[in-house]
Structure formats: C-alpha cells, structure tokens
Amino acid sequence: MSSAFCRWLEINNFHLKVETALERSLQTNHNLSLKEFYVLYFLSQEPERKLKLQDLEEKVGLSQSAVSRLVSKFEAKGCGALERNICDADRRIVYTSLTETGAAKLEAAAATVEKVLAESFSEMPIQKLIEKADDQNK
C-alpha cells in the first residue's frame, strides 16, 4: 500500500480513538453526546447564537432528518439548552438557538473536551502519527 494510504489509516485510527474518548467523557460528565456538543458549539459561534436547521446539518455533518431528531432528543432531555423558533417571515424555516443554560453547559463540556484532546495529543501527536506511517513504509 502507498505511504499516503498508510498515513491516512494511522490518522483515521487515531481519530476514532479520540472520538470514542470524547463521546465517553461527555456522556459520563455532562450527559451529552459528541454530536450534541457540536450543536452547542456551532450555535455558540454564531453572532445571534442561532442557526437554521439546514445550516446546522451542514456543520454537524448529519442529514436533515438526523439533525431534526438530534435537536428533538436534546430538547426532550428537558435541560433547556436549546430553543426552536419559527421564522416570522417564512414559517417553513425553523431556527435552533442556544440559551444561556446551553451556553453554560457548553462551557463546562468544553473543559472536558479540551482535557481529552490534550491527553490524546500528548500520547500521540499528529506529527508522530505521520512519521510512524512513513517509517512503516520504508
């Protein structure tokens, strides 16, 4: 196999391990999935802390129905992190917005994410992954 493919496999395996660690940590410490964390994060990055569902699906990397289910499930938790609003000008457009409660939840969860990422990157920095894959192909 090519060295580029081997590098890709090393990076992908590392990504899967980190993603699993993030998911586990967020669930345990904050009752959040990684995708829910992404929703909170992307909403927090918007000037008005809101996005159309279709814009959110592009950022989170899910289909329209999957994002809708994710937001509904999130709302069903009753934690008050998100609000859905229908656009006054076009009632077909639905916005999801981050509440103050959601912002606080994000802040707490972000500390956990940073910790997991710092630990993961200290164990195997990305440059080391690339070098490891290159060494395997020599």
Automatic annotation (TrEMBL):
One of its GO terms (biological process) is response to stress. One of its GO terms (molecular function) is DNA binding. InterPro entries: HTH_MarR-typ, MarR/SlyA-like, WH-like_DNA-bd_sf, WH_DNA-bd_sf. Keywords: DNA-binding. PROSITE patterns: HTH_MARR_2 (PS50995). Residues 1-138 form the HTH marR-type domain. Pfam families: MarR_2. The keyword Protease does not apply. This is DNA-binding transcriptional regulator, MarR family. It comes from Trichococcus ilyis.
